[in-house]
Structures are given as C-alpha cells and as structure tokens.
Write a structure and sequence with these properties.
heterodimer, A: alpha+beta, 60s Ribosomal Protein L30, Chain: A, Phosphoribosyl-aminoimidazole Synthetase, Chain A, domain 2, 7-stranded mixed beta sheet, 13 strands, globular, disordered C terminus, B: 367 residues, alpha/beta, Rossmann fold, 11 strands
C-alpha cells in the first residue's frame, strides 16, 4: 500500500509548473520519466554539458531545430520521433555522422504525463534507430495556454570525415537527381490528423533517421555524390528551387518519375495541396554524377529506407539570358516552373 | 488506344487547326480549378503560339468585389470569430487582410467547410461565429446546409456573411458585353455537377461559339481543347459534355433544392464585370436571423480597388497578367495587391508561379 501511494505521488498524471522549476520535482521527472526512456551513460551523468571526443581529422557539423508540430501525435510518428530524425538528417545531409543530440523539452502546464512518456519513448526509439545518443537535455514547463502540449528543441553535433564536400556549387549539368522513396507522406499525415481528425487516415508519416542510408551512399560513391538535401518544409519543390539558385543551373524533375503513393495523392487532391510542396521527414534528395546514378540506386535499394529509391530528374545548363530555375517535365510532356511555395499552405475553395 | 498515346494525337490536331488560322485563337476557361490544372500540367508549353487560353471569371476569390471583401474585414474587427476558407485569408482590403487582422489580434479561423463553423459555434456557445461565404454554386450548397443546420440547432451565435455568386448570369454578362472575342469556352466541371449541362444549352448558338464541359485531369483538358478547336474550325456552335461520368443534364437536384430553400436571387457586384442582376445568392427572408450583415449592422461598402490593378480586365480576358505593370513587380504572391495574385486559383498567381520565365523570355524576344 505504502509503495503504491508513493508511486502515485511521485508520478502525477499531469505536468505542473513545478516540474520545470529545477527543484526536487524536476529531478523526479528526469529520474522517473526521462532517463528510463532516453538515458545512456553520458546523459545519466546529468552534467551541465556533454563532452564528446572528436576523432582525428574530422570537422564538426552543428545543427538546431525547433519542433512545434500540431497535433503532437499523428499516424506514423509524433513530435519526439520528429525531433530526433530532423536533427539527425540535418547532420547527415552535410556529410556528418551524428555524434550526440541535445534535447530540450518545453511542456505546457497540464500536459498529460503519458503524452510526455510517449513522446520520449518515440525519441528514444528513433535515437536507437539512428545509433545516436541524447547526451544532454533540458526541461522547462510554461503556463497553461503558453504552449501546445509539448514542444521540443533538438540540437546535434556530427563528425564530418576528412574530404567530404557536399555543396551545391559542385553540381554540374548532366548530374542525376535521386530520391529514396515516395514523397509527401509526412505533411499529409499531419494535415489530415489536424484538419480531419474524424477521418481514419491510412497515410503514415515517413519520419525516419536517414544517417545510415546516407552513410552507405557516401562511403560507396564518395566524390560522385555532390549534394544532399532533405525535402522537409516546402517539399521537393523547395529543394529544387533552392538548388537551382544555389548551383546556377536548370534543375529538371520528371513528374512521371516522382513517386507518390495513390492514397497520398488522393489526400493531397482532397486538401488542394500539391504533393511536390508537401513536407517529408524521411526523404533525402541526392545529386550524383550521371555515371554513378545506377550504382547509387543499387546502394540505396539495399537499405530499408531506400527500397523505393528512384531517379527523378537531372541538371541541365541554363539557356542564354535565362535565370537559373527549377522546372517540371509534366507527365503529358509539358514544361513548367517549379517554384518554392510562399508560406502557409492554404486549402482552396472549390 | 492508351491515353498516353492519345495526348500527342490531340496536340497534333490542335496544332493543325491553329496552323490553318492566320489570327490568334482564343479559348476561355471559367473555372479556377481548370486554370490551376492547365498551368500545373504545363499545357501552355505544348500549345501553338497563336492559341491563347484565357482565364475567365472562374476563381471565386478573384470575382469577389472589393466592397464584399471590405465587409468581411469589417466583421473581423468585431469581437467575433471570423471563419473563412483559406483562400480568402490574404486577399487585401482597403486596410489589410484577414491574415493581417489575425496577426493584430482578430479571431480568424480557417475552415474547410461551412458546417465546421456551425460545429464550432455549437461547441462554444459563449462566442459568436461568422462564416464568410464566398464561391459559386459549388460552395453555396454547403453554406445552405450550414444555415439549415444552424436553424435546426437554434444557434444564436452563428451567422453568415454571404457573397455567393451564380455562374450562368456572369457568363451572359461577359459574352453579351462583346468586348472579348472568344472562339470557344471550356465550361467548369464542378459547377456543372451541381447545375447540370442543360443550363448552358442556349448559350452556344446565342453567342456563336462552341462550349465543352470538361474534367480536371490534364488529359481531359487537352482533349477538350482539341475538341473545341475542331468544333470552332467546323463552325459547329454546340454544347458538348465531355465529363458525362459526373455531369448529368439535370445536375444535382438535392443541391439545387438546398439553394432554392435558403437563398433568393439578388444583384451582385463582380470584380471586372460590375453589377449583374440576379447573379447573387442572398439569404431568403426566413433566414434573416443568420445574416451577419444585418446582425452586426455592417452596411454595404463602396469598394476601392488599387488604381493600377488590372484584375478586373484579366478576369474578363481583356488583358493578360503580363500586361499589368504591377505583375511580378509590386504585386507578387508574397505581396499581392489584387485577388488574382492571392488566390491559388488566380490567373496572376498561376502565371507567376508556373509561367513567369516564359513571360520574361517572350518580353525579351519582343525587344
């Protein structure tokens, strides 16, 4: 009886402001709720900073991102999984091997503890998938109404081996553009969960850590991989438009080659969205030398996150007097601009 | 034959007919979804130079008059929750937009259907909700259903700011004005699902050009354009329904009934077309209680458009976006000055988004 009563006291069902105060309750929350889910030797020391050994000859990649997705949980993931995958992928696309993650939790007063547990479970699972540790963290609680359940911030450090040089400036006409699978699942999973919660959607977010997939490609193809980018917010269109400007060439995607699952395409139509502009969290676009594209596809298709990898376009030189741009070769043989979306994606009227 | 093999044949047919003409062939679509589909699929890049696809008054946001937009913005200044379709959010009024009003503290909520706003009003009885109803006969039945639902629930905290419009009177006004020479019309799919194909039957012979009801897939549009070229070349001024799987001669009786119960016909102000008698759907007197204009005393506002904005002429096919000196300079999707640049179905936004380098190239070639 005594043990049960103690447990009930130690593990309240809702997060209160006191859990973020830095006192005994914060310690309890860290010990009982956080460490069992994402703990490891480094984190468990609860030092003010984690200390990482940098392998000789490596440079450091360093990235940070905030995660404020609404709803907190959606088919295929939640904010915890996103926070790990997003930062791991940001490190991986510049050639970094993720070495440690810092995770900041901002919970809203009244947030259910089981929601926090689920989010941390997901973060822990994603970190194990990526083979990276959360090495330091922070917990804050804001007043009711000042947040939306749980926000996370994750920063990450990655080690970039000597000689890796992934830059848009290296992209040349003739290069091939690949992607590791179907697009738009993440954005539509979240949009449907938000806008049509009554609909039981079969679309699952693709949120996944891609560092192993990327590492396989880089170690096999080395210099033949010239540029990597994860098409998150603003989607494939955003990556294409940015890349065109950054490399100064014409980036051409072929509509017919871009994989979109039928259910995802249907949902996009329903919401009036263009799958090319919708966010992904488990996809990476690679620009490789044309001669290496078959090899690259073979390497990716060996990997569970790259089974549906395919060639989706190529880089062309820009005709005289034309600015660099991204174009779509449509399935009926037309050509049109592919521009970056403007801001919030607005549903259409009819 | 497979579809993929048919498209080149249709394109060949279009090119052949265009080649026999020494002037420019002008076809008009009157549906925002067609506009989007045409540009998204790159159809303009496949057409001969002397074939122009004009976008008529088919984008609901674009044809909404400045006065109606300002009335909605006036409501948003009141202590109410203004519920709007997403496309309306950034349309500029005399003083800001719903989006900027929201940033300054107004309660503005994007909804996907009129009924969503009724549900919200039901769930939050202490707050007042106003639904900004715009659109043609496609969205009007949903507004009608919402009004009936609000009455059934005896809601006192929900009302509607109604600017619904009817497509057919606008077509008459546009064609009768005879300012735009048109060789054929691509009639909208969605509106026709509601209205049925019979409502257009008298139009082709009256105005002397062929009309085709078409679906929204890229191939359906190419097929319809090819058919229009063929009909125009043969001087066959007829109506053809190329979307019969969803468009019937009578349309949706249920939706039409909803419209008849909840609305009555009234004059409406259209951007570009002016006042058109009987082209508006206004709440029938039995539903006065749900009229937001009446409830909050928001009077009709004399709209003032941006003096250099040519959206009105663009909607009526008189000029193209590139003819407007604001296009792509002062007026862009990020800083829109006119509704055609705001709406995702607006002609200017489609041009800017999918076509602007082609515009630049042609302009450069002219110099």
């Amino acid at each position: 009886m005594k043990t049960l009563a103690h447990a009930a006291l130690a593990l309240p069902t809702h997060i209160s402001l006191a859990h973020g105060g830095g006192g005994q309750l914060t310690d309890d929350l860290i010990r009982d709720t956080i460490l069992p889910r994402i703990g490891n030797d480094t984190l468990n020391e609860l030092m003010d900073s984690a200390i990482l050994d940098v392998p000789a000859g490596h440079r450091i990649a360093f990235s940070v991102d905030g995660y404020v997705v609404h709803p907190t949980c959606f088919p295929g993931g939640d904010v915890g999984r996103l926070a790990i995958c997003g930062t791991v992928n940001d490190l991986a696309v510049v050639g970094g091997r993720p070495a440690g993650i810092a995770l900041g939790v901002i919970a809203e007063e009244g947030c259910r503890r089981d929601l926090l547990e689920r989010v941390l479970d997901s973060a822990g699972e994603a970190a194990r998938e990526a083979g990276v540790f959360v090495v330091t963290g922070d917990t804050k609680v804001v007043g009711r109404g000042a947040g939306d359940g749980i926000y996370l911030t994750s920063a990450g450090v990655g080690f970039v081996p000597h000689g890796r040089n992934l830059r848009a400036a290296r992209v040349q006409p003739g290069d091939a553009i690949l992607i590791n699978g179907p697009i738009a699942d993440h954005g539509l999973s979240v949009m449907l969960a938000r806008e049509m919660p009554e609909l039981e959607s079969a679309i699952e977010s693709d949120a996944a850590p891609l560092n192993h997939l990327i590492e396989d490609l880089l170690s096999e193809l080395r210099d033949d991989v010239v540029f990597l980018r994860d098409p998150t917010r603003s989607g494939l269109a955003g990556v294409g438009a940015d890349l065109a400007v950054a490399c100064g060439h014409r980036v051409v995607f072929e509509e017919e080659r871009i994989p979109v699952r039928p259910s995802t395409r249907h949902a996009a139509n329903l919401l009036g969205l263009d799958p090319l502009e919708v966010a992904n969290e488990g996809k990476v676009v690679a620009v490789v030398r044309a001669t290496a594209s078959d090899h690259a596809l073979a390497v990716w298709r060996e990997h569970p996150r790259g089974r549906e990898a395919c060639l989706i376009g190529h880089v062309e030189s820009v005709p005289a007097q034309m600015p660099p741009r991204c174009e779509l070769f449509t399935r009926i043989g037309g050509r049109r601009l592919l521009a970056k979306p403007y801001g919030e994606q607005l549903p259409r009227i009819c | 034959m497979r579809l993929a093999e048919k498209i080149p044949l249709w394109l060949d047919l279009i090119a052949a007919v265009a080649e026999r003409r020494d002037d420019t062939v002008r076809l008009m679509e009157v549906c925002g979804t067609h506009t989007m589909s045409i540009f998204r699929s790159g159809i303009p890049s496949l057409l001969p130079d002397n074939l122009k696809l004009l976008s008529g008054p088919g984008c609901p946001v674009c044809v909404t008059s400045q006065g109606d937009i300002d009335r909605i913005l006036a409501v948003a200044q009141l202590p109410v929750v203004t519920c709007s379709y997403g496309d309306m959010l950034r349309v500029p009024g005399q003083d800001g937009s719903l989006e900027s009003a929201r940033a300054k503290g107004s309660d503005v909520c994007v909804v996907y259907s009129a009924l969503d706003s009724v549900r919200m009003a039901q769930a939050q009885p202490t707050r007042e909700f106003v639904f900004a109803a715009v659109g043609f006969e496609t969205t009007a039945p949903a507004t009608a259903a919402a009004v009936l639902e609000a009455r059934r629930l005896k809601l006192r905290n929900w009302s509607v700011m109604c600017s619904h419009k009817r497509v057919v009177p606008a077509l008459h006004a546009l064609f009768a004005a005879d300012t735009t020479r048109i060789d054929g019309i691509l009639l909208p799919g969605h509106v026709s699902v509601i209205l049925g194909s019979n409502v257009y039957r008298a139009l082709p012979s009256l105005y002397d050009f062929p009309m085709v009801i078409a679906g929204f897939e890229d191939w359906q549009i190419v097929e319809a354009v090819a058919r229009l070229m063929e009909l125009a070349a043969g001087r066959q001024m007829v109506l053809e329904n190329m979307y019969p799987e969803v468009v019937t001669p009578e349309g949706s009786i249920h939706a039409q009934q909803l419209l008849r119960v909840v609305f009555q016909l009234g004059d409406a102000e259209w951007r570009g077309l002016g006042n058109i008698p009987d082209s508006g759907l206004i709440l029938a007197p039995a539903f006065d209680d749900f009229d937001a204009g009446r409830r909050y005393g928001v009077r009709p506002i004399e709209g003032r458009e941006h003096p250099a904005c040519r959206c009105g002429e663009i909607i009526t096919g008189l000029v193209q976006p590139s003819d407007c000196k604001l296009f792509g300079t002062a007026c862009t999707p990020v800083h829109p000055l006119g509704p055609c640049m705001v709406s995702s179905e607006g002609t200017c936004q489609a041009w800017f988004k999918y076509h602007r380098h082609e515009v630049a190239k042609r302009e450069a070639a002219k110099l």
